[in-house]
Amino acid sequence: VQLQASGGGLVQAGESLRLSCAASGTTFIINLMGWYRQAPGKQRELVAQISSTGVTDYADSVKGRFTISRDNAKNTVYLQMNSLKSEDTAVYYCHGYLLLEGMDYWGKGTQVTVSS
């Protein structure tokens, strides 16, 4: 399974970005898909995740600003990021978990930079 992320970039505080991540290499629906981020000098942390049935989970720091969604038919997950803050600056990693294999998969990171 390969995860291909896109949509990062440089924005100003208060603006929005949308990240996308498409899974390929499997015909099975990825059970859990989500986004993690890692800022310089910090540990990787969960931003948001969504199950194949639509159950979502968010980090407290992004609740009310970020929305995760997915298209099971395309095995694609999206992260709509609104009201971005400088503290959202990080490399964002797409994550997928396929229950059938008991495997975690990671995409290459995409940089999100928010200037204040």
Explain this structure to me?
The protein contains no helices and eleven strands. It is globular and about 45 Å long. The protein is 0% helix and 56% strand. It is mostly beta strands and 116 residues long. The protein has strands at residues 2-6, 9-12, 17-24, 32-38, 45-51, 56-58, 66-71, 76-81, 90-98, 103-106, 110-115.
Features:
single chain; 116 residues; mainly beta; seven-stranded mixed β-sheet
Unreliable stretches: none
Please give the share of residues in helix: under 10%
Distance between the termini: 37 Å
Rg estimate, integer Å: 13 Å
Shape estimate: globular
**What average pLDDT do the residues reach?**
97
User: Which structural class do the helices and strands define?
Assistant: mainly beta
Summarize the main sheet. Answer: 7 strands, mixed
Topology as H/E string?
A: EEEEEEEEEEE
Percentage beta strand: over 45%
- Number of discrete helical segments: 0
Number of strands: 11
Write a compact overview of the structure shown.
With 116 residues, the protein is mainly β. It is built from no helices and eleven strands.
Topology of this protein?
Elements: E1 2-6, E2 9-12, E3 17-24, E4 32-38, E5 45-51, E6 56-58, E7 66-71, E8 76-81, E9 90-98, E10 103-106, E11 110-115
Parallel strand pairs: 2-11
Antiparallel strand pairs: 1-3, 3-8, 4-5, 4-9, 5-6, 7-8, 9-10, 9-11
